[in-house]
């Protein structure tokens, strides 16, 4: 069920429309080709870096650990910036939460995921259109202390008011409640370092042309960093303060675990061309994964993505 749309007085219709155009239809994201996370080998790499087991996903790892300390399923949880990915559906489907509330600003994304919840008959899943920059604290269903855990999965890097979001989540969480993040934490507005740009361009130059051709036929060579204006033109919320997500957390939460999983090379290198590496008969993808791990291990690059387990202070 999707709750009635709340008034969003501080959020312009133009902003909502721009975000909705990008995230309201998942097909837009893969129109030019697949992304790195669409590859099973990359998923296994992420699992291994976060959980230590290539076959154990981060959420399953989190709930396995949590279940050793408290009863599972949790009574009530929230997913901020849920989009149409269906994380809140999985939390209920897997028996990790009795009730899960998905919050997002995109009406099309919410309609799509609400339809999926109804199709599965997941009565414990509800949705609410709201701006994560100003959560509806105090309204029905969003009373202080009404959630056992809050999940931010690929959504929090779209938040401009991080201080307000963190303060709001801390208010909504019960004492000792969990804030689970699986996020892009790299440079704001995708202002990659010169080293990243040079490394990606160098690798692209060495790959055979069929491997660097996008789904619409463009040959991807000579990687270029987008300007902030170009990023904003596509999505005004994109990576707006992504580099501050981790530094600001301790103001409201205790970070219990930080599990970086790279992405500084593979995320950008494989964008729009990941489909060309599905079979990987020559083991090129394996070597690219090893190359990123080499750069990480030697401190040449930092993690642009991480799973973070944080807990409400007090």
Description:
With 314 residues, this protein is an alpha/beta fold. It has a domain at 13-188 and 240-260 and 303-312: Rossmann fold (3-Layer(aba) Sandwich). It has helices at 13-23, 40-51, 58-67, 87-93, 107-120, 162-172, 194-206, 228-234, 245-248, 266-269, 284-297; strands at residues 74-80, 97-104, 125-129, 147-153, 173-184, 253-260, 305-312. It has a seven-stranded mixed β-sheet with strand order 3-2-1-4-5-7-6. Helix 6 links the parallel strand 4 (147-153) and strand 5. It starts with 12 loop residues before the first helix and ends with a strand.
CATH hierarchy class name of the domain at 13-188 and 240-260 and 303-312: Alpha Beta
CATH superfamily assignment of the domain at 13-188 and 240-260 and 303-312? Vaccinia Virus protein VP39
User: What's the helix count?
Assistant: 11
User: Percent of residues in helical segments?
Assistant: 25-40%
- Describe the main β-sheet briefly: 7 strands, mixed
Q: What's the gist of this structure?
A:
This protein is α/β, with parallel strands linked by helices. The protein is built from 11 helices and 7 strands.
Structural topology:
Blueprint: H1 13-23, H2 40-51, H3 58-67, E1 74-80, H4 87-93, E2 97-104, H5 107-120, E3 125-129, E4 147-153, H6 162-172, E5 173-184, H7 194-206, H8 228-234, H9 245-248, E6 253-260, H10 266-269, H11 284-297, E7 305-312
Parallel strand pairs: 1-2, 1-4, 2-3, 4-5
Antiparallel strand pairs: 5-7, 6-7
């Amino acid at each position: 069920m999707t709750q009635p749309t709340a008034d969003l007085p501080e959020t312009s219709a133009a902003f909502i429309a721009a975000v909705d155009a990008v995230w309201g239809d998942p097909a837009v994201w893969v129109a030019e080709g697949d992304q790195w996370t669409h590859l099973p080998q990359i998923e296994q790499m992420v699992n291994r870096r976060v959980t230590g087991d290539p076959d154990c996903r981060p959420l399953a790892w989190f709930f396995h650990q949590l279940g050793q300390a408290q009863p599972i399923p949790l009574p009530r949880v929230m997913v901020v910036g849920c989009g149409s990915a269906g994380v809140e559906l999985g939390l209920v489907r897997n028996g990790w939460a009795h009730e899960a509330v998905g919050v997002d600003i995109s009406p099309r994304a919410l309609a799509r995921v609400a339809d999926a919840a109804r199709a599965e008959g997941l009565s414990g899943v509800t949705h609410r259109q709201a701006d994560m920059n100003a959560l509806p604290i105090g309204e029905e269903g969003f009373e202080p202390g009404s959630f056992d855990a809050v999940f931010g999965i690929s959504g929090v890097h779209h938040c401009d008011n991080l201080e307000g979001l963190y303060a709001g989540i801390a208010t909504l969480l019960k004492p000792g409640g969990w804030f689970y993040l699986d996020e892009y934490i790299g440079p704001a507005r995708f202002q990659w370092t010169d080293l990243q740009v040079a490394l990606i361009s160098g690798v692209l130059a060495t790959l055979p042309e069929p491997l660097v051709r996008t789904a619409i036929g463009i040959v991807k060579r000579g990687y270029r960093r987008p300007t902030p204006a170009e990023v904003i033109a596509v999505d005004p919320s994109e990576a707006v303060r992504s580099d501050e997500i981790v530094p600001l957390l301790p103001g409201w939460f205790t970070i219990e675990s930080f599990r970086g999983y790279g992405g500084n090379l593979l995320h950008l290198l494989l964008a729009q061309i990941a489909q060309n590496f599905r079979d990987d008969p020559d083991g090129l993808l394996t070597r690219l994964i090893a190359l990123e791990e080499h750069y990480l291990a030697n401190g040449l690059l930092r993690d642009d993505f991480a799973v973070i387990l944080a807990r409400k202070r007090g």
